[in-house]
């Protein structure tokens, strides 16, 4: 019984052990001069990974809908962050959208769209017959 419990624990903990933390904008951070469309290229964001937004006092981060992302609408944030060192855990597969609501920043390109994929091994298996 002890071995089975240990194996179960390892299987459940394994995806978290392989989670990545992505610093948005790399060493530049979340700035009005970042090129986030280029930054996202080649990255695979997986459930359990985290995004780290580092930014100064003139910026914030808002998670928004696709429509608000496309139109840089700032009044309907799903979540808003302003601590300058924001860690967001990617909890569900699907598209996520982030903008800086400071006037002119989103329209100037300070916005990020990512697609989060399910962690491998987390999909339910089909029972054998």
Explain what this protein looks like in three dimensions:
This protein has 129 residues and is of the alpha/beta class. The chain is built from three helices and eight strands; from the N terminus they run H-E-H-E-E-E-H-E-E-E-E. The longest helix has 16 residues, at 2-17. The protein is globular and about 55 Å long. Residues 6-15 and 122-129 have low confidence and may be disordered.
Q: For this structure, what is the CATH homologous superfamily? A: Cupredoxins -  blue copper proteins
Average pLDDT taken over every residue: 87
- What is the N-to-C order of secondary-structure elements (H for helix, E for strand)? HEHEEEHEEEE
- Sequence stretches where pLDDT stays below 50 over 5 or more residues: 6-15, 122-129
CATH topology: Immunoglobulin-like
CATH architecture: Sandwich
Number of domains: 1
- Give the strand line-up of the largest sheet: 2-8-7-4-5
Helix fraction?
A: 10-25%
Number of strands: 8
GO molecular function, one term: electron transfer activity
Protein name: Phytocyanin domain-containing protein
Domain Phytocyanin: 20-118
Keywords: Copper, Glycoprotein, Metal-binding, Signal
Task: Annotate the secondary structure layout.
Blueprint lengths: L1 H16 L3 E3 L12 H5 L4 E2 L3 E5 L6 E4 L1 H6 L7 E3 L3 E5 L4 E6 L11 E7 L12
Parallel strand pairs: 1-3, 2-8
Antiparallel strand pairs: 3-6, 4-5, 4-7, 7-8
